[in-house]
Amino acid sequence: MISILDLRARIGAGSLTPRGAIDLCREAIAARDPAIGAFVALDPDPAIPDEGPLAGIAVGLKDIIDTAGLPTQMGSAIYEGWRPRADAAVASRLKALGAVTLAKTTTTAFASLDPTETRNPHDPGHTPGGSSAGSAAAVGGGMLPLAFGTQTGGSVIRPASFCGCAAIKPSFRLIPTVGVKTYSWALDTVGLFAAGVGDLAYALAAVTGREGIETEAASAPRIALVRQDFAQAPEPAAEAALLRAAEAAGRAGARLVDIALPPELASAWARHPEIQDFEARQALGWEFTEHGEALPPRIREHLEAGGRITAADYDDARRHAHRARRVLKALFEEVDVLLTYSAPGPAPATLASTGDARFNRLWTLMGVPCVNVPVPGEGLPVGVQVVGRFGGDGRTLAVAKLIEDALRR
């Protein structure tokens, strides 16, 4: 994979120019993307700034994020060829930092469940995940150093686990969603994919203007091992990855404890789909009403289900979520982070499904930061998920970096 920190170090040392760094990505895309299919559009002649903390960094943006210079087609024939007049807030920020928004990456239709044609960079017969399929595959396949996606259920952390790259779903609204096609306004969160946790921390600090994003964990961080029993058991590979990560963290000085999540969190987890589908039916109301026949089957099914959810049921689900957030906040008084599964197992051997988000959706609903850390091993990639308190993105990244470093040693 291509590291942001490595590129920036080489540019700083004068051994690589920003244009040279962009050309490296262009060459990698030309060589690898025909077998992966991570991109829907490439800028043939982008402006390449020489200055800025992200100068020389080529970025991919999920194709629900508006870009004035490239089409934004939402993974749907309804928007084929559509070009926004303005960049989304995050795209504008990236350009101000010197980054090159080189590509639009594939997304499932409106960031839902109907798969893209993108293949997993580690095995073309396996899904790359969804809905941020292209962003995960572009980074995991060594074609871009940085890509952006969104998560409503598990669409950042799960594909990162399947494609073997690091990723963060930040605290809710840390990155603005202005100019991002909404699926669920209470859940949608813009996230980042990169080669390693240090790369994530560097990019997130730049994009959010928060120079204090930590990269070093406090000594002996308190880590709670969480298995989310209400979400059913994972595959053996996911359990093995969790144990390897926990053992590595222990060797690095972390204090670990196994905990069962309080019942309020299980209740909120069960109600995530009601919030998601109720809001999606309104957010995509025009598309459903005017172009329902053009929608692929799975998103159409979810929008139909959303129309059957009453406002009373939606409000009740939101109350359960609010109670769960209070309970989770109290839990973080006792520990620094939670360590759990990123996905049920490696990427399934199919292109007809994007995988299961059951180990992700609670944390999206809670609005807390989550980091995928790849766990080295045999076969297809498997990651673990480090979950922190709301607003504690720096600490979450710092503990994730400690685990990543310990696994590499």
Automatic annotation (TrEMBL):
Span of domain Amidase: 50-397
SUPFAM superfamilies reported for this sequence: Amidase signature (AS) enzymes (SSF75304)
Basic and acidic residues composition bias: residue spans: 116-125
Region (Disordered): 113-136
Recorded coiled-coil stretches: none
Superkingdom of this protein's organism: Bacteria
InterPro entries in alphabetical order: Amidase, Amidase_dom, AS_sf
UniProt family annotation: Belongs to the amidase family.
Protein name: Asp-tRNA(Asn)/Glu-tRNA(Gln) amidotransferase A subunit family amidase
Species the sequence originates in: Methylobacterium aerolatum
